[in-house]
Design brief:
Blueprint: H1 16-23, H2 46-52, H3 58-66, H4 74-89, E1 95-99, H5 106-114, E2 122-125, H6 130-137, E3 139-142, H7 150-169, H8 173-195, E4 197-202, E5 207-210, H9 216-226, E6 232-239, E7 247-254, E8 258-263, H10 273-277, E9 281-283, H11 289-304, H12 307-313, H13 317-340, E10 347-349, H14 353-359, H15 365-384, E11 391-394, E12 397-401, H16 404-413, H17 422-438, E13 444-446, E14 452-455, H18 463-474, H19 480-493, E15 497-501, E16 509-513, H20 538-543, H21 548-563, H22 570-575, E17 580-583, E18 598-602, H23 604-612, H24 625-632, H25 636-648, E19 655-657, E20 662-663, H26 680-685, E21 690-691, E22 698-699, H27 702-712, H28 722-737
Helix pairs in contact: 3-13, 4-5, 4-15, 7-8, 15-16, 17-18
Length: 738
């Protein structure tokens, strides 16, 4: 028999069972402590974990493990993992869309990759309505204080139940009445708590996986979250339970989760697709014969071999455990970096950011969206691999330094510019265009005598022809309905093809291309500007600019921003370890010096040398000849010479503990120590001067040189492009020879 004193008021949006669940402490205790992204304790010691991972490259170990069960999907695995880790950074996490026909392994790759993340961090969502999301993931909090009220309600309910028991065994009517009044007061207190509450859905540090396209109602809720407009969004939620009338309740959504969408449906038919597409990175799994063969082999091993052998040749329980701990360690490192800076945000320095933005396309609005996706990926990779990256410390703020290999990885795992899935671009290139190009004229229908009686208005292809050609090329069938939903509708919406009603068969349409050239299906490591005579990739163009001079000027450029805020000179700033330091990656610490969180301080010369020699591919990055030429007309050579001389000496280095910001060694390395004896005026004179291209004039600023060039060399470009200057000099030389 139900207790009337604990029946929930029918005006509320939750049933009694739901209120019981929400107030029993299960949800309220989740956020009873300050949010820290659910930092987990590692199951094994960090030192033991590091001893099992070659070069302490935890991320690549995770990749290696997943590839044991997900075949031929290196790029997709990386995209999924980086998206997952971005949720812990919190600041602008990634959103990923994985699109492919059925049975191509998109859902499998996602689930296999994310199974190593903590279970509480990954939410799999099917055809979920907002009501289900609110009820399953929401907790009740006080409207004013924002504190969970679950424990308080549970305490009152427990107290009331005890009073009911006491009242049931008491025979004295007066005592029963007093107990009844007390129970009534408790009921009113509980009711007030509900009335002054709202539902909180905390999505910080969460990965939302949509196994099916979200319903319109749920999308309307998620859209501002995916746009990262505000970190807290409050909205009225109307619900009607079986035992109550509709009631409006306030719902607060906090934080930005990382989201992964996967679908086999014709996304071009979603009313919300264009909105989703603008907020996600679109990708697709590989659809190649090698993948199918290796997957079949894996299935045969899983189903046909004893468990003991599977542990040996596929994946072992130990490897699974180590991989989970690698995920936890990377998560912990991300949280550590967030705690280092005062604002709780991870800081990065991408030295080549200006070079990259100049090489990215900038011809239309979607190019801006693409640039944001490139830089978003470029932000998360060095964070995930922070142990293998150097650290810039400026005035107490630690910034992870992105190296050129981070850019290389971004470009390798990025598929195409316009968001069209790779498999669809391949269909357009391998099936649609070749079939269309086979034809030399519009199709026609002839009578028994061979006389043309009907002819199509344009050269075009039919769905039956496309299905037949697809089977011939891909060695597998496809239905006309699947063809339309998977490919043709998308191509029409993307403006790649168009259609008209057939003149020969009025019941069907015929299709012809608007874009008559093949689409780019490779990563953007390949050519962007096909008309470029130099045929340079983005990566090659950028790496050719990375020289010692360039790196030095990027460093001094950063410092000059701060010199506007302080009263000291450049060399005083560099010599002050409280102002400026560059710390090595953990791999460059000697074994006898290694301690948890320790890094070695690098001189500027060391950093310049290491950064310019970082490339792992055969691109010419030798010491630039520009340096020699630059030295002839600038005191910069004397600075580098002094720096180089420091490197040859036996310098006492310091080990920097970046956890507490204090030096372990009492002797502090000064990157430009050999210059510190100079007076400030002489140090200033050593700063690189800006030279006129036409005479020996030296200016202290760009403006000074511009003014000089205009007045002293009329008719010549004030600051010519180096290539133009070279041509002018050759021309002058020829004229003199004549």
């Amino acid at each position: 028999m139900s207790d009337p004193y604990f029946e929930i008021n029918n005006e509320s949006i939750y049933s009694a069972e739901e209120y019981e669940k929400m107030t029993e402490g299960k949800y309220g205790k989740e956020i009873s402590v300050p949010h820290d992204n659910n930092i987990d304790n590692l199951i094994i010691e960090k030192k033991e974990l590091k001893s099992k991972i070659q070069n302490e490259d935890f991320f690549e170990y995770v990749i290696k493990t997943i590839k044991k069960t997900v075949k031929c999907e290196d790029a997709l695995i990386r995209q999924i993992l980086y998206t997952g880790f971005s949720t812990y950074v919190e600041d602008d996490p990634l959103n990923l869309g994985v699109l492919a026909p059925t049975s191509e392994g998109k859902t499998y790759a996602i689930i296999e990759s994310l199974q190593y993340f903590p279970d509480e961090d990954v939410l799999y969502i099917g055809q979920m309505s907002p009501k289900v999301l609110v009820r399953q993931k929401g907790i009740l909090i006080d409207k004013k204080s924002g504190q969970p009220i679950g424990d308080k309600i549970q305490e009152l309910r427990t107290k009331a139940r005890d009073l009911v028991k006491k009242m049931n065994v008491t025979k004295d009517k007066e005592i029963k009445a007093e107990i009844n009044d007390e129970i009534q007061n408790i009921r009113e207190d509980i009711q007030k708590l509900f009335e002054n509450s709202k539902t909180l859905i905390d999505l910080r540090g969460k990965i939302l996986v949509f196994l099916e396209p979200p319903k319109q109602e749920l999308w309307d809720l998620l859209k501002p979250i995916l746009s990262h407009d505000k970190k807290e969004i409050e909205f009225p939620f109307v619900d009607k339970t079986a035992n109550s009338n509709a009631e409006t309740k306030d719902v607060l959504v906090r934080g930005w989760p990382a989201c992964i969408f996967c679908s086999a449906k014709d996304e071009s038919k979603w009313e919300i697709w264009n909105e989703i597409k603008s907020r996600i990175i679109v990708t697709s799994p590989n659809m190649v014969t090698q993948k199918y063969k290796e997957s079949n082999k894996l299935i045969s091993q899983n189903k046909g071999l004893p468990n003991l052998i599977q542990q040996q040749i596929i994946i072992s329980d130990e490897e699974i455990e180590i991989t989970k701990n690698c995920i936890l360690l990377i998560k912990e490192k991300i949280n550590e970096f967030k705690s280092k800076n005062k604002n709780g945000k991870i800081s990065l320095w991408i030295p080549y950011n200006d070079l990259l933005q100049k090489e990215l396309p900038a011809n239309k609005g979607t190019d801006v969206r693409f640039a944001k996706k490139i830089f978003s990926l470029l932000n998360i990779i060095p964070i995930v691999k922070s142990d293998l990256r150097k650290i810039l410390v400026m005035e107490g703020e630690s910034s992870i330094i992105a190296d050129i290999n981070d850019l290389k990885e971004v470009l390798l795992i990025t598929q195409n510019f316009d968001g069209l899935p790779k498999f669809k671009a391949e269909f357009f290139n391998d099936i649609f265009l070749p079939l269309y190009n086979i034809k030399t004229e519009p199709d026609s229908k002839r009578n028994d005598e061979g006389k043309k009686i009907k002819e199509e208005y344009v050269k075009a292809v039919t769905t039956r022809e496309l299905c037949s050609y697809f089977k011939e090329i891909k060695k597998k069938p496809i239905s006309t309905d699947n063809l339309k939903h998977t490919y043709l509708h998308t191509f029409i919406n993307e403006g790649l093809i168009d259609y008209i009603q057939s003149n020969i068969d009025g019941k069907q349409n015929i299709y012809y291309p608007i874009v008559t050239e093949s689409l780019s299906i490779e990563s953007i490591m390949n050519l962007i500007d096909k008309e470029s005579q130099q045929s340079s990739t983005i990566y090659e163009k950028i790496t050719k600019n990375i020289t010692e001079v360039w790196i030095f000027h990027e460093i001094t450029g950063l410092i000059r921003y701060r010199l506007d805020q302080v009263t000291i000179g450049l060399f005083d700033y560099i010599n002050d370890p409280e102002k400026f330091q560059i710390l090595s990656d953990n791999n460059h610490i000697l074994e006898e010096e290694k301690e948890e969180g320790s890094r070695r301080a690098l001189s500027i010369s060391e950093f310049i040398q290491k950064y310019s020699d970082i490339f792992n591919i055969p691109i010419d990055n030798k010491r630039s000849s520009i340096l020699t030429d630059f030295a002839k007309r600038s005191p910069f050579l004397s600075i580098l010479a002094k720096i180089d001389s420091i490197d040859k000496k036996d310098i006492i280095t310091t080990t920097k503990n970046i956890d507490d910001g204090k030096a372990i060694s009492s002797t502090l390395q000064e990157p430009l120590k050999s210059l510190s004896f100079l007076p400030s005026s002489e140090q200033s004179s050593l700063l690189p001067s800006i030279l006129c291209h036409y005479c020996n004039y030296q200016g202290k600023s760009e403006n000074q040189v511009l003014v000089h060039s205009i007045n002293a060399h009329p008719g010549k470009p004030a600051r010519p492009d180096p290539n133009l200057l070279d041509l002018m000099q050759k021309k002058d030389k020829k004229e003199k020879e004549i």
